[in-house]
Amino acid sequence: MNKAKPALWAAGMMLALSAVGAALPVAAPAAGVLPADPLRSPNWASLAKTFFDGGPVRFDPRVKVIFPPIAEDQRAFPVMIDARGIPHVKRILILADLNPIPMAIDYHIAAAEPVIATRIKLDQRTPVRGAVQLADGSWLVGGNWIDAAGGGCSAPPVSRVKGDWAQHLGEMRGQAWPVAGGGARVRLNFRHPMDTGYVANIATYYIETVSLTGPGGRLYGQIDMQAAVSEDPSLTIVAKAAPGDVVTVAGRDTNGIDYRARVPVAKMTPIPAR
Fold it and tell me: How far is the C-alpha of 235 from the C-alpha of 231, rounded, in Å?
């Protein structure tokens, strides 16, 4: 039950993209005053008003939004947000401006590094952004446009077409590896249709929360998901865990189905922390 596929991020396959090209971050505006969007998204103002809690916002190239240059599958588009060069990050959002469900991930960070990877749906050409909230309540944002054929949110999941989705609810796999410099990369895979509600006669249905804890109940982080995350979700974080520690995973979907697993951190030579 706790076996996992190889890590998603292969060297040379991903492209790091930033919302601004400047070498230094732009000075933060006053709270409630939005900076001009370098991506010129028509939804930028409403997106910021909805998700940034009125805190000061600025665009910062240290928020690394990493994804392929081409969306080969709009139903499962890999995205990584890496803010490990920024101190005091407490929260990460993954956003796709022009999706009907613009927020995919809301990651509340505890004893973990500020980095997360997953796969999301793309309904059309859109900016894909990472937004990180600092301890003082301010937000830093990065991202870029991605071209997509569209329909990722309105296409029926493969498991719905096959008709076997109900047989696999509650199933998950996980694995954890120590990384150089300390910590452990934790990779989780869930079986779930992640229905958006935009397919005829199929109601919204998705995994809504996943928490990861360690020895003594130490919280590594909580990940709140929306149906914009791809079918059979994949999540990768870097927890502040040691070889031999056991990561306890607890998830629940919108119908009350529980996902539970205990994932031991392997005792092996640490892998690079990328």
Answer: 12
Q: Residue 213 is part of which domain span?
A: 15-264
Domain count, the chain: 1
9 lies in a domain? no
Sequence length of the chain is 274
- How does pLDDT run across 27-80, given as a tens digit for each residue? 555 556 799 999 999 999 999 999 998 889 999 999 999 999 999 899 999 999
Q: What is the CATH number of the domain that holds 28?
A: 2.60.40.2470
The whole model's pTM is what?
Answer: 0.86
Q: What are 223-241's pLDDT values in tens digits? A: 999 999 999 999 999 999 9
| Residue 263 CB partners (closer than 8 Å, separation 6+) | 2, 174, 175, 176, 186, 188, 246, 247, 248, 249
Rounded CA gap, 57 and 37, in Å? 11
Cα separation of 232 and 271, whole Å?
Answer: 26
In angstroms, how far is the first alpha carbon of the chain from the final one? 26
In a domain, 4, yes or no: no
Determine the Cα angle at 153 with ends 1 and 69, to 5°: 85
In a domain, 251, yes or no: yes
Task: Say if residues 13 and 68 touch (Cβ distance below 8 Å).
Answer: yes
Q: Alpha-carbon dihedral of residues 146, 150, 151, 152, nearest 10 degrees?
A: -20
